[in-house]
Amino acid sequence: MSLLALPFELIERVAIHLTDTSGIQALLPLLLTCKQLYNILGTQSNHHIFASHFASHYDLSSASRRLGPQAAKSRSYACQLLRYSHALSRIRSGDIYADDVVHTFWTSFLMFMEDDGKNRASLEAAGLPDFVDRFVRERLYDGHRDGWPADNAVNSLALWLLWLTTTEDRLRAESSPRRAQMIKLMLPFVAMPVRYPSTLAPDIHFSLPLSRDVNTAPHSVPTLHGPYPHYLDGRCHSTALYSISNLEIGIPLASIAAKLIYISRREVFPVAVPSHLPRDRQHALQLGLTMIGPTQEDVHELNANKVAKLVPPTRPDGNWSEGIEGWDTMAADERAAKAPSARWDNDWYRLVDCTDIFRLISLKRSHYTPGTMSGLWQGRMLIVDDTALEGLLQIPQMPTHFNEQNLGVVAAPVFMRLREYVCMDVDPNEPVPAGEMEDGRHNAWLPASTQRFEYGHELALSYSTPDPTAPHRRIETTKRYHEYVPDGSLHDETTCRGCLYRGTSEMVFREHDARFLEMLDDELAAAPLPDEMEGIEDEEAEEAGDDVDDDAMSVDDEDELVVKRKCDGIMDIVLVGETDERHAQAWHPYRFYGRVREWDGLIALVRAPAMPGAPHVGLWMFTGYVVGGQTLVGNWRTTSHPGEPVTFEGAFAMSKRD
Questions:
Q1: Which of 77, 86, 407, 637 could form a disulfide with 649, with the two C-beta atoms 3.0–4.6 Å apart?
Q2: Where are the alpha helices (DSSP H) in 381-458?
């Protein structure tokens, strides 16, 4: 009996069974048997077979969660399966010198951003950890400039994949020479912020996108290492993803991944515990030691909590929902939000949305989850000797002996306990305006005159502005923010201005909204004025009205992305905190205050001595992103070099303890 004599459904079931047991490649001999089978089972005619295989071998939750229901189609899954299969075959080849290695890295990176367990298992089975490790050790300096590794897509993706595949077992298995080699390879990205950006837009800006007005356009200053600060115009990649034929996604920042790789290697060996230190604080007091300084217990605490938290492991079978309480009663969107890949949603949205500092974002998605920064954070800041760093800024070439010893790199602990306060979209609330730059510092985007007063569960922010009617006088203004609570009780649909305007708490954003509004503006500008204003209608408006196309407002929305989310009523987030008493006794007391930039979720924090006249004078500013929902990574700078075009900066990483 011929196979073709069987009903179509049985032929399809045979093909699905074949791919499930032997892989999608096992279908090829069957497709080559005859033209009729090819037409029945081929990728162009039978998406169901390939979509079925994709669903059973790869993770799906993030596709519909991030891209909407149009991503969850058989055709989309079939196309994505072909892309994944090609990338995995390139990894299995082991050829790190292949011309298309950057495309392999892009697909692998996107798979990790969607990983719920199956994607990682597939990438590891193909040999990605060793593949990317070899690439970094052998090819990171390809195309170097003046001895410095290039800041390009292939290097950035390689560093991110190296970090995403880092595990405790691999860290322990790495030999001392290879660990030292990796630390040295990461050092340029860690110690040279002037060459390698750590933000998607300079932190001197709070309100984004920027105007294209040439009089207000941002400018960098030329340095021997390139323009500074970094404006990443055009730093993006176009790729096909599910139903989207041309997704524009930003190149992830190499310096962020490099900091995590560097610190994770440094944390393999614990900090030495000096034997002369008191055992604990009680022992110190018994010895009459009341000054600020660590005890052995404090150093043990440093070692017990890693700063560069590794990516949590996922189940290889992708069965991540097992054991989640209330799973059976959850709605589909609630279930998707529980997926392991949801930890990367903010990172993914940031890369997709924040590719152009001049472009309005149509799909207004979250780039920071409110409440993330509340609690106790522990970190390390890497400090380079000022003289050594100043010498590097005066020559374009990498010195022959560029290493930690010659740079004088030391690590200092950072502890802070923060609280989040939010400005809710309720009449007459308005956020505190962004502060102006003064002496090269931005004061966490708050006005320089801002004073903070906490009482109960509220924060009062008072600041002064010049009186427009009498410039020699100043007007005092106070804004009130509420302490954030995760249960949503701060938001009231009946008083939220946004909800009242929409008539619902559900917000719907479409990919072409910005384009539609531009067309609407053109339509309104070209439309005839009311009768009573016809007399003052100018000639240019008349000419524009004559050229209006009846179909100008039409938008092809066949593949338009649609994002829906509930309004939380939050217009602004301010952070306030301090070093808690126990850690202040060991590592000095500090006060912290900061703000979250809505455009990309960038966090700015100012650290100030809690005691006036303390030996550690001056302000320290920290700016960074929360990576994977658990680690704040970025750069710090001091105010000891005001007015200089290139500030003295260093790397830091902090992870949340509770």
A1: 637
A2: 386-393, 404-407
Residue 104: which residues within 8 A CB-CB, separation 6 or more?
Answer: 87, 90, 91, 98
Pairwise CA distance, residues 95 & 79, whole Å: 24
Beta strands in 361-513 (DSSP E): 375-383, 410-424, 451-455, 458-467, 470-483, 506-510
Please answer whether residues 62 and 113 qualify as being in contact, where contact means their C-beta atoms are separated by less than 8 angstroms.
yes
**C-alpha to C-alpha distance for 559 and 551, rounded to whole angstroms:** 19
**Which range is most confident: 5-19, 179-193, 233-247?**
179-193
Predicted TM-score (pTM) of this structure? 0.89
Distance CA(422)–CA(486), nearest Å, equals: 12
Helix (H) or strand (E) holding 605: strand 603-609
Q: Which amino acid is at 41?
A: L
Q: Give the CA distances from residue 468 to residues 319, 448, 531, in Å, rounded to whole numbers and listed in that order.
A: 62, 18, 38
- Sequence length of the chain is 658
409 C-beta neighbours (distance < 10 Å), count: 21
Phi, psi (deg, nearest 5) at residue 249: -130, 135
Element of type H or E holding 84: helix 74-93
pLDDT tens track for 604-657: 999 999 887 665 557 899 999 999 999 999 999 887 655 555 668 899 999 999
Give the DSSP H/E element, type plus range, for residue 236: strand 236-241
Cα–Cα–Cα angle for 220, 223, 226, nearest 5°? 75
Rounded Cα gap, residues 262 and 185, in angstroms? 9
* Distance (Å, whole) CA 524 – CA 509: 22
User: Do the beta carbons of residue 418 and residue 576 sit within 8 Å?
Assistant: yes
Task: Tell me how far apart the alpha carbons of residues 440 and 448 are, in angstroms, rounded to a whole number.
Answer: 12
Residue 309: strand, helix, or coil: coil
Q: What amino acid occupies position 170?
A: R
Q: Which two tokens stand for residue 502?
A: 């929409």
Rounded Cα distance, 445 and 603, in Å? 10
DSSP codes, 123-155: HHHHTHHHHHHHHHHHHTTTT-BTTBPP-SHHH
**Neighbouring residues of 136: CB distance < 8 A, sequence distance ≥ 6:** 158, 159, 162, 182, 185
